[in-house]
Amino acid sequence: MRALVIEDEKSIIDAINVAFEFRWPDAKLIASTTGKKGILLVRTESPDIVILDLNLPDISGFDVLKEIREFSTVPVIILTVRSDDEDILKGLEGGADDYIIKPFNYMTLLARVRAVLRRTEVIPFVGHHNNVVNARLKIDFVNQKVKVDNRLVRLTPIEYKLLALLTKNRDQIVPYSSIMGEVWGKDFAGETESIRICVRHLRKKLQDSPPKMIINKRSSGYMLKS
After folding, report:
1. Those residues with Cβ within 8 angstroms of residue 146's Cβ, 6 or more apart along the chain or in another chain
2. Do 139 and 101 belong together in one domain?
3. Within 10 Å of residue 77's Cβ, how many Cβ atoms?
4. Rounded to the nearest 5°, which phi and psi values hold at 41?
5. Are residues 138 and 98 part of one domain?
6. pLDDT tens digits, the chain, 226 residues: what are they?
7. Distance from the CA of 13 to the CA of which of 109, 118, 199, 203 falls in 20 to 30 A?
8. Residues 8 and 55: beta-carbon distance below 8 Å
């Protein structure tokens, strides 16, 4: 496992490195103290996860996240002192998979890294192959590719797992609790707001506006219509 830390405080990088060496010796840590170099390392080093600070010396961590999401679905954990609800929401809506506020416990950070890696691991549904969901949407479960109007769509692992779950249960309401358990995992401490944000991203990528494919039943769950 290769983790990239984009953080301008060397003391924090060193402490995270020690935590990994102590609890996760097989992991390799790569670090950058600037956002621009961090983006370059995502491209060249292909890390399995990124731990990203928001207050960087050259560009905002939000801008780093935005650029990463333009070419990569790598899981990203934001690690920052910024605790305002607006910043948390902006980070999650920007494509972060988790948001941790400083000061933090280093062992807890490693646990959250493991949890994010587990829930972003994409496993195709056994017994499914190419699936024409409706006139616009096609899913290749073997190669985990999604096409809308015959155009390839790049989804994050979480977005793909959500779409696959809804497809497996098409034309049926999938309860919020089932979505959280199947997509995010039972150990995820998030709320239905995480589902709402993910669905909004998914609808945008599927060009489903106004919603005709992914339908919400208020206070219940979501359904994918054939």
Report:
1. 137, 138, 139, 140, 152, 153, 155, 160, 163
2. no
3. 21
4. -70, -30
5. no
6. 999 999 999 999 999 999 999 899 999 999 999 999 999 999 999 999 999 999 999 999 999 999 999 888 899 999 999 999 899 989 988 889 899 999 989 999 999 999 888 877 765 554 455 677 788 888 887 777 899 998 999 888 888 889 989 998 889 999 988 888 888 775 555 567 788 888 998 999 999 989 999 999 887 899 999 8
7. 118
8. yes
> Which pair of structure tokens corresponds to residue 91?
């980070």
Residue with tokens 């497809």: 167
CA 164 to CA 144: how far, in whole Å?
A: 9
- Classify burial at 69, counting beta carbons within 10 Å of its beta carbon; exposed 0-12, middle 13-18, buried 19 or more: middle
- CATH number of the domain bearing residue 13: 3.40.50.2300
CA nearest neighbour of 4 among 19, 37, 23: 37
Cα 71–Cα 75–Cα 5 angle in degrees, nearest 5: 95
Residue 114 identity (one-letter amino acid): R
Go through 149-184 and write b for each residue having 16 or more CB atoms within 10 A of its CB, e for each that does not: eeeebebbbbbbbbbbbbbebeeeebebeebbebbb
Within 8 A by CB and 6+ apart from 159, the residues are: 198, 201, 202, 205
